[in-house]
């Protein structure tokens, strides 16, 4: 009598099991970044930037970006945000360079900050959501000077063509 009930309830019980030290699925840190998913654009003179993020799934988010000036790609980047040991790690591979990893130091429902003090530039990567706008920022010290670069973006429909 109980074995049939157990077999029927087992799949549901498995789905409800907490992950990562008892944390419910919706509270996983990577899921707090679902606001980053989608397509974003910025424009500055002849430069046009695009950034796309897949929604969180399997403990990761995958992203890519490119900057085009006139009709030429001048920069591109492949990024992975992954969750390990309850923290998020931003793994960036810009324009074919060796990847660099930045660890989360701030995570809210609208902001995430990643840092790697040992990296040349940037040492910090920030994303902040404000309505349909996204502000990405890189900052750190370069050649002895503190500097930052802002990328104000708007949410756009993801283009397939």
- DSSP strand content: over 45%
Distance between the termini: 57 Å
Mean pLDDT: 86
> What is the helical fraction, as a range of percent?
under 10%
Describe this structure in words.
- The chain has one helix spanning 2-16, and strands at residues 38-44, 47-53, 60-69, 72-84, 87-94, 100-107, 111-115, 124-130, 133-142, 145-156.
- It is mainly β and 161 residues long.
- The radius of gyration is 19 Å and the shape is globular.
- The chain contains 1 helix and 10 strands.
- A hairpin with a 2-residue loop joins strand 9 (133-142) and strand 10 (145-156).
- The chain has a 10-stranded antiparallel beta barrel with strand order 1-2-3-4-5-6-7-8-9-10.
- The chain has a single domain, classed as Calycin beta-barrel core domain (Lipocalin).
List the helices and strands and how they pair.
Layout: H1 2-16, E1 38-44, E2 47-53, E3 60-69, E4 72-84, E5 87-94, E6 100-107, E7 111-115, E8 124-130, E9 133-142, E10 145-156
Antiparallel strand pairs: 1-2, 1-10, 2-3, 3-4, 4-5, 5-6, 6-7, 7-8, 8-9, 9-10
Features:
single chain; 161 residues; mainly beta; Lipocalin; ten-stranded antiparallel beta barrel; 54% strand
What is the gist of this entry?
The chain has 161 residues and is mainly beta. Helix content is 9%, strand content 54%. It contains 1 helix and 10 strands.
């Amino acid at each position: 009598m109980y074995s049939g009930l157990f077999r029927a309830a087992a799949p549901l019980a498995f789905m409800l099991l907490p992950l990562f030290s008892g944390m419910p699925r919706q509270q996983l840190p990577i899921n707090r970044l679902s606001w980053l998913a989608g397509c974003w654009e910025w424009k500055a003179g002849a430069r046009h930037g695009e950034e796309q993020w897949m929604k969180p799934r399997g403990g990761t988010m995958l992203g890519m970006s490119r900057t085009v000036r006139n009709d030429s790609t001048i920069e591109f980047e492949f990024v992975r945000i992954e969750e390990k040991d309850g923290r998020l790690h931003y793994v960036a591979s810009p324009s074919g360079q060796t990847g660099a990893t930045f660890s989360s130091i701030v995570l809210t429902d609208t902001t995430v900050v990643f840092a790697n003090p040992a990296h040349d530039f940037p040492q910090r990567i920030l994303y902040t959501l404000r309505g349909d706008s996204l502000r990405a920022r890189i900052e750190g010290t370069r050649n002895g000077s503190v500097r930052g670069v802002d990328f104000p973006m708007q949410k756009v429909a993801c283009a397939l063509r």
